[in-house]
Specification:
The protein has 19 helices and 4 strands. It is about 60% helix and about 5% strand. The protein has 3 domains: about 90 residues, Fumarase/aspartase (N-terminal domain) (Fumarase C, Chain B, domain 1), CATH 1.10.275; about 230 residues, Fumarase/aspartase (Central domain) (Fumarase C, Chain A, domain 2); about 60 residues, Orthogonal Bundle (Ribonucleotide Reductase Protein R1, domain 1), CATH 1.10.40. By secondary structure, it is mainly alpha-helical. Helix 3 crosses helix 6, helix 7 runs antiparallel to helix 10 and helix 10 packs antiparallel against helix 11. The relative contact order is 0.11. The chain has a two-stranded antiparallel sheet. Strands 3-4 form a two-stranded antiparallel sheet. The structure holds arginine. Arginine (ARG) binds next to helix 6. One of its GO terms (molecular function) is argininosuccinate lyase activity. InterPro entries: Arg_succ_lyase_C, Argininosuccinate_lyase, Fumarase/histidase_N, Fumarate_lyase_CS, Fumarate_lyase_fam, Fumarate_lyase_N, L-Aspartase-like. It is found in: Cytoplasm. It comes from Novosphingobium piscinae.
Length: about 450
Amino acid sequence: MWGGRFAEGPSAIMREINASIPFDKALWRQDIAASKAHVGMLGAQGIVAPEDAATIAAGLDQVAAEYEANGVPEDWDLEDIHMTTESRLAALIGPVAGRLHTARSRNDQVATDFRLWVRDAIDQADAGLAALQRALVDRAGEHAASIMPGFTHLQTAQPVTLGHHLMAYYEMAARDRSRFADARARMNRCPLGAAALAGTGFPIDRQATAVALGFDGPTDNSLDSVSDRDFALDYLMAASQCALHLSRLAEEFIIWASQPFGFVRLPDSLSTGSSIMPQKKNPDAAELVRGHAGRIVGCLTALMITMKGLPLAYSKDMQDDKPPVFEAAGLLTLCLAAMTGMVAATQFRTDRMRAAAELGYATATDLADWLVRQANIPFREAHHITGAAVKLAESKGVALDQLPLEELQAIDARIDQRVFAALSVEASVAARASHGGTAPAEVEKRVAAARTALGLG
Ligand code: ARG
């Protein structure tokens, strides 16, 4: 493409280090779409004769059909998807193909293609998150009143409901979706027409190409247009945050599936066995989600470090922007699908959860709250009295509500028979009806609101 200036061709090493076609062929659909928008505009503006523009557009359609049928050929000499397509176009329609690259550069071309690709990846992540939310809401609705221990420091803290626990992940997924939506809104400006870096002297219509490609409008600074990769970083940041959430959910399933917990039976379809231990059913999908989250964060780090020292405008380092984004997007899609399947098909062992909630004095706070409410004792003092009761129960190896009333009264005479009603795990969760609390009635409200937000009946 630049033979005019060069006396010799590239060395084998140059060819290999320079080739991005092995990975950027993934951009072929975007590249064809952007070229069609560009040549349509060139024709409309009279920069290229309308009949030539039509010939080029038809040729691009033919190249696309070939790619669709046979895949994109990988010729390192053609470096990237842009030159691969242009060269095939020239083979099909002859020298008129050379008019396509009028008033553009690969710099604005790749910036445009990549934005289009990332925009699709955002839409795919949003669809995956919506599916996860639907699964969470369905299971939360089933288990709005199923009691389990809530933890802090992974120590039994207070009883909660499983529905409440699952809805916590619904909220995280909602924020993830809004992060992707923010990224999409911010990136949806078209760099095409910035040309190499300075703009062009041809009378192009940037608004027209932007609209043809579904952008909100053109970018406003040509140097920024070809050197900005914020949009890819925004995507990777949103993907990383989403992956961290999925990893935490995966970690919970892993813990819950362990024998001492036994809170869940994971679906066989998302588990594996052991080649030596016949009894094993391992939570591999969840472990890989946890593992993949690390790789996704690695992709973010990789691109941040690629970009951190680059002067304006385009530098070839930026060719390395695509592999981490492609990798992260592939991993994220898998992770979302795996966790959606796990949420949908896991069998929750509510009997085991309920029994575990009885352990660990999970209703101690309810005793303290009862003392505050019924005996008007300041909370700090109530906390102290309750601590003594827990100590006594622990020394006798019984639950709080199994302590005889006389022994409780020996700790504090203001305790009476009514306290026992407050000490059950059911009473404990039912009491927590503050906005966003774990009371089944409140969880049902949140589930109903979520179903409305998701457009479910
Ligand atoms: N293959 C290149 C990339 O992906 C396309 C842009 C090349 N531009 C250039 N001036 N060498 O970044």
